[in-house]
């Protein structure tokens, strides 16, 4: 998985109707190829609609490092090609960033050069499999050094590439393109045969540059040593980026949206066919051909999707769109089943695992399959999900949250969205969504006697964050009722008092000072009268709802430490860090006995133990907000730990998940 970017928290919320026309950025796959092949052509290649994402800019910068002159002319790029044999040795390593397409395609190009070079990438890309391109390129005579078939990839100078007839074990446009690019430098005909047809942008573009290339079903053949000629390339809108807005419009309750100039290449239109099969009202308007690519305007209208068994034949042409298709399945009626898509485990992340774990955290009934998933649509719950630095997973979860504004969904791991879709947040805001970066929350839940109050106070002080002692909320309202002589039977009056409760907490050493209406009330809250009144007002539904919202209002910059029994499971489900403290009953009884003894109260440990065990059973089995760890909570057993040791563990977790 990609490295953590702790404060990278985002959420989207819809604010109204979804309508109008939308311009999606240029196709990433075509943008990569246009710069690479334009560099190998003779003369100028003018590219309009080039996607200025981090991935595509990495390819552009690498071609510049290889001696190609590429300049901007307004919104266009002008590439002055150097010819097939005109590339120059780079001065240093060639950094692909997070771009898997760049690394695999450029491997085919660099393997054939008469100079040494090295391709590197970020942490995520360096873990992705490159053996699938190393194997055929080595058969062609390339010398590539790589540890465990992952980046960095070191290329030795090529003496002569040889043409091969390669039967790829997988349908992969990146593998096919790498072999075809290397085949340009070989004498004779290089052929690639796939088990299923993958996207064919390389073939289409090579023909446009004047290459002698034949396509026969699943077999593609290229004649080596061609003279490529510069051309004008108009990059259509990326269907992979458009897919997010297709699902958005279909699942939105009031949508009529037109996506302009979308690439509907038959090797890329699987997402359209799948959504139509699910009952999506999705139609193609003004179909046409531009620069050899099929394009159309795509109209999307609100629909009630239904679950389907996704045909395996459509998987290669929809392989990049499955993260958002998982969201469509989660919002559809019935069950959607996907098999034959093991390739999803080898993308920027293991997309099957990342998506299924995230959906499960949001309450979706789904399960992982070895080569796919089974998802039954239903209501989403609040929660914090992790995109693990995979831009497509992160954007998919963000849209799921936007489509269900009644729940609170926060997404971490969004830092690579710019690699493929830098305009994403701008576009969604133009369509009426509110983009926020939520205030981080650390929830610390657990039973009594585990040290959560002390730990929370110390943690809030250490971080300089706000503190919420949720256990004092109901007693504070009860004290307010008594102080202001309110009628405990008047539900409306109590609810208003709960909403307006002027309550704050201040970390004070190992304890929290509780301030009600500006006055410290710690001792008053412990009185028997206050406890009795709290037991009267707590069962009232209107009071509970008002106090739930009052607790949420404590989420203020720069952050909040929330101490309680259901902070991570009910109140702050989308908290980026949830901690559940526990300890064995015997140790908790000892701690409680010590506290009471210091106060002069004489009680036997065995009686305390019996009370603790009975309360634990009641709390963990009650129907409403049972005392259990959240699904994504970090459980810490404090039985044999000091407060400082517990705090150190939590601070370590904070460093990983919440605070830099």
Protein architecture, described:
The protein contains 22 helices and 31 strands. It has 660 residues and is of the alpha/beta class. It has 4 domains: 9-25 and 236-436, Alpha-beta prism (UDP-n-acetylglucosamine1-carboxyvinyl-transferase, Chain); 28-234, Enolpyruvate transferase domain (UDP-n-acetylglucosamine1-carboxyvinyl-transferase, Chain); 439-465 and 558-660, 3-Layer(aba) Sandwich (Rossmann fold), CATH 3.40.50; 468-556, Rossmann fold (3-Layer(aba) Sandwich), CATH 3.40.50.300. The strands form 8 sheets. Strands 25-29-24-30-31 form a 5-stranded parallel beta sheet, covered by helices on one side. A 4-stranded mixed beta sheet has the order 21-22-1-23. Helix 3 (100-110) links the parallel strand 6 (94-95) and strand 7. It is elongated, with a radius of gyration of 30 Å. The mean pLDDT is 92.
Brief overview:
The chain is of the alpha/beta class. The chain is 35% helix and 23% strand.
Task: Summarize this structure as a short list of keywords or feature phrases.
660 residues, alpha/beta, UDP-n-acetylglucosamine1-carboxyvinyl-transferase, Chain, Rossmann fold, 4 domains, five-stranded parallel β-sheet, four-stranded mixed β-sheet, 3-phosphoshikimate 1-carboxyvinyltransferase activity, transferase
Set down the secondary structure blueprint.
Elements: E1 9-14, E2 18-23, H1 28-40, E3 42-48, H2 54-65, E4 69-73, E5 76-82, E6 94-95, H3 100-110, E7 117-120, H4 131-139, E8 144-145, E9 153-155, E10 165-167, H5 173-183, E11 189-193, H6 201-208, E12 213-216, E13 219-223, E14 232-234, H7 239-251, E15 255-263, H8 270-277, E16 281-290, E17 293-301, H9 322-330, E18 335-338, H10 351-361, E19 365-369, E20 372-376, E21 383-386, H11 391-403, E22 409-412, H12 424-430, E23 433-436, E24 441-445, H13 452-463, E25 466-469, H14 473-483, H15 491-499, E26 503-508, E27 511-516, E28 519-520, H16 522-525, H17 528-537, H18 541-552, E29 560-564, H19 567-571, E30 577-582, H20 585-598, H21 605-621, E31 634-637, H22 643-657
Parallel strand pairs: 2-15, 3-14, 6-7, 10-11, 21-22, 24-29, 24-30, 25-29, 30-31
Antiparallel strand pairs: 1-22, 1-23, 3-5, 4-5, 7-9, 8-9, 11-13, 12-13, 15-17, 16-17, 18-20, 19-20, 26-27, 27-28
């Amino acid at each position: 998985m990609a490295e953590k970017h702790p404060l990278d928290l985002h959420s989207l919320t819809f604010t109204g109707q979804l309508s109008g026309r939308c311009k999606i950025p240029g196709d990433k796959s075509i943008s990569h190829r246009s710069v690479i092949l334009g560099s190998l052509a003779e003369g100028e290649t003018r590219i309009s609609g080039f996607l200025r994402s981090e991935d595509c800019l990495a390819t552009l910068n690498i071609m510049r490092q290889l001696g190609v002159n590429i300049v901007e002319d307004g919104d266009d790029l002008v590439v002055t090609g150097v010819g097939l044999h005109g590339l120059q040795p780079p001065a240093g390593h060639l950094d692909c960033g997070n771009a898997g397409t760049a690394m695999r395609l450029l491997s085919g190009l660099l393997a054939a050069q008469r100079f040494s070079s090295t391709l590197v990438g970020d942490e995520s890309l360096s873990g992705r499999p490159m053996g699938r391109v190393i194997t055929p390129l080595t058969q062609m005579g390339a010398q590539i050094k790589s540890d465990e078939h992952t980046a960095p990839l070191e290329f030795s100078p090529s003496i002569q590439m040889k043409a091969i007839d390669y039967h790829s074990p997988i349908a992969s446009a990146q593998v096919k393109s790498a072999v075809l690019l290397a085949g340009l430098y070989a004498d004779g005909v290089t052929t690639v045969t796939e088990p299923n047809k993958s996207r064919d942008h390389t073939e289409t573009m090579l023909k446009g540059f004047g290459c002698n290339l034949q396509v026969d079903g699943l077999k593609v053949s290229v004649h080596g040593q061609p003279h490529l000629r510069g051309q004008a390339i108009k990059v259509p809108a990326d269907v992979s980026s458009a897919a997010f807005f297709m699902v958005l419009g279909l699942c939105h309750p009031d949508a009529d949206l037109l996506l302009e100039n979308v690439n509907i290449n038959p090797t890329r239109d699987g997402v359209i066919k799948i959504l139509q099969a699910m009952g999506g009202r999705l139609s193609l308007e003004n179909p046409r051909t531009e620069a050899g690519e099929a394009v159309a305007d795509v109209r999307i209208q609100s629909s009630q999707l239904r679950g389907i068994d996704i045909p395996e034949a459509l998987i290669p042409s929809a392989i990049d769109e499955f993260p958002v298709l998982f969201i469509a399945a989660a919002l559809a009626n019935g069950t959607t089943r996907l098999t034959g898509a093991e390739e999803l485990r080898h993308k920027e992340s293991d997309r099957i695992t990342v998506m299924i774990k995230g959906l499960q955290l949001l309450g979706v009934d789904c399960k992982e399959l070895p080569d796919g998933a089974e998802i039954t649509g239903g209501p989403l719950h609040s929660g914090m999900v992790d995109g693990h630095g995979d831009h497509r997973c992160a954007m998919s979860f963000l849209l799921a949250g936007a489509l269900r504004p009644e729940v609170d969904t926060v997404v971490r791991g969004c830092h690579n969205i710019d690699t493929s879709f830098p305009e994403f947040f701008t576009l969604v805001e133009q369509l009426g969504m509110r983009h926020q970066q939520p205030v981080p929350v650390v929830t610390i839940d657990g039973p009594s006697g585990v040290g959560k109050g002390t730990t929370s106070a110390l943690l809030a002080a250490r971080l300089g964050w706000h503190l919420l002692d949720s256990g004092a909320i109901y007693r504070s309202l009860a004290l307010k009722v008594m102080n202001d002589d309110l009628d405990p039977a008047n539900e409306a009056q109590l609810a208003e008092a709960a909403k307006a409760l002027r309550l704050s907490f201040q970390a004070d050493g190992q304890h929290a000072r509780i301030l009600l209406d500006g006055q410290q009330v710690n001792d008053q809250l412990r009185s028997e009268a206050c406890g009795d009144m709290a037991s009267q007002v707590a069962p009232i539904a209107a009071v509970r709802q008002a106090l739930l919202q009052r607790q949420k209002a404590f989420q203020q910059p720069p952050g909040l430490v929330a101490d309680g029994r259901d902070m991570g499971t009910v109140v702050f489900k989308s908290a980026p860090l949830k901690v559940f403290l526990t300890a064995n009953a015997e140790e908790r009884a000892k701690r409680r006995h010590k506290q009471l003894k210091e106060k002069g109260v004489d009680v036997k440990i065995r009686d305390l133990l019996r009370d603790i065990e009975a309360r634990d059973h009641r709390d963990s089995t009650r129907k409403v907000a049972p005392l259990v760890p959240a699904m994504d909570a970090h459980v810490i057993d404090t039985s044999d730990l000091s407060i400082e040791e517990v705090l150190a563990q939590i601070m370590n977790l904070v460093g990983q998940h919440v605070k830099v």
